[in-house]
Amino acid sequence: MVTVKSAFVLLTALTLGVQTAALGKELEIGQATSEGTSITIYNQNFGLVRDVRTLPLEKGVNFVRFSDVAAAIDPTSVSYTSLTAPNAVVVREQNYQYDVMSPETILSKSVGKEVTFRRYLNSSVSETRGILLNPPQVTIVDTNGNPSTQSVGLVLKTDSGIILNPSGESEVKELPPGLVPKPSLLWKLETNKPGDHKSEIAYQTAGMSWKCDYVAIANDDDTKTDLTSWVTLNNECGASFKNAALKLMAGDVNRVTAPAQPMYMKAARMEAANDMAQQFSEKSFAEYHLYTLAGTTDLNNHETKQMSLFNAAAVPTRKLYIYEPEMSQSYGGWSPQRNPQKVNVKIEVANTKANNLGMALPKGKVRVYKKDSDGSLQFIGEDLIDHTPSDEKIRLYIGDAFDLVGERKQMTYTQVNDRKFKANYEISLRNRKKEGDVTITAVEHSYGDWKINTSSHKYKKVDANTFEFPVTVPAGAEVKVQYEIEVKS
């Protein structure tokens, strides 16, 4: 007899039963035989695991079981390679067995067989024995075709009748075949070169992800910023990895997938950060960027780990005030906005070596802080950046200026003919600060064949549909930008 309660302590050889005997000698790869694990995590919720083991193979057919795999493994991505003699070992079969041993699976595979339920009452023992008529769980499919598992009461047929919901410790005569203690890979290998083979086992698994977060601390006049990058690793793949070499892949790797059925880090100022060696090295790889950890680390299942990617102190920074009111394109031009609009506050950083940066920056959230007059660190805004190569600029929108106001009006409109019109606009920029001149850039848009006939201030053409006016506004003052635009459709 085998109790369901004690089933988890059985050896793998017992769970295979007749199946193992039919296959022949089977080699179990244990965790202790690992000679090195390396993991590459992609920022698309999957990882690539590579494990090196030494396998003593006999001449002819060998059956090798590898049970230290992630539960979220993609079985179609598994590969086995003999590093000792790649052309001397052939993979004849590869099986992923994931029917894991549990009280539910044991009882489900014992339907139609004799099961004993035993209850302990003080010093007496009560037993109920009969034929199990149903599994403990059933699958229900809703009207949308989505399956779900639902627990149901057991039904037991005994000599005296039918018993519903029998209780107590369950006991079966033998373990059903095909169950495994945990998900595992089973290979059928054939070799003509017996002996020890240093082998690499590789596979992809879901449930592994990483993301990048940045902490930026601006100085008093917003001309310098200390930037710290943190990598957050999340392992929910169903396996733990000890002393693993770690690499992080940044970039948008294309994957073909079937239809689918934050920690807080206290900001710290890094006065001498650039003098310390970074624990991740970065290099270009294919069309992506690879970040390699110096040394190894442990990645435990159900664990979130944070690691420093890089630190950069005193990064030159530009603070920008942008007035770009939201407008909708309509017949005759862009619809006028008569209500005061917010002036955006943005921070611009050049990702160059001269600015203490110059490395490929993974996409992520940038949180910006600044010290107040008491020396306390205050949060002043955040924004997201995409993957940014070196020598490119980063512009962060961190909020709207409280004391700066913009207002845009269309003053005139003249339809010259069916394909041409003229319009006059006035942009009022007001600085309500008590001290300090500011430069506000008023961004305008047009379409078609356009030209500026007259303007009160110099403008810069950005592209075919955009032009802008950089305007200096003294404290407590208002400056009006006026221009006439001619548009041909």
Report on the architecture of this protein.
The protein has 489 residues and is mostly beta strands. 3% of the residues lie in helices and 58% in strands. The protein contains 3 helices and 35 strands. It has a 9-stranded mixed beta sheet with strand order 32-35-30-29-26-23-31-34-33, with no helix packed on it. A 7-stranded mixed beta sheet has the order 6-16-4-3-19-21-20, with no helix packed on it. Strand 10 (137-141) and strand 11 form a beta hairpin. The longest helix is centred in the N-terminal third of the chain and has 6 residues, at 18-23. It is elongated.
Brief descriptors of the model:
mainly beta, seven-stranded mixed sheet, nine-stranded mixed sheet, 489 residues, 3% helix, 35 strands, disordered N terminus
Main sheet overview: 9 strands, mixed
Q: Outline, from the CA principal axes? A: elongated
Strand order of the largest sheet: 32-35-30-29-26-23-31-34-33
> Helix proportion of residues, in percent?
under 10%
For the CA atoms, what is the radius of gyration? 34 Å
Arithmetic mean pLDDT: 84
Number of helices: 3
* Poorly predicted tracts of residues: 1-24, 259-276
User: How much beta, percentage-wise?
Assistant: over 45%
Alpha-beta content class:
mainly beta
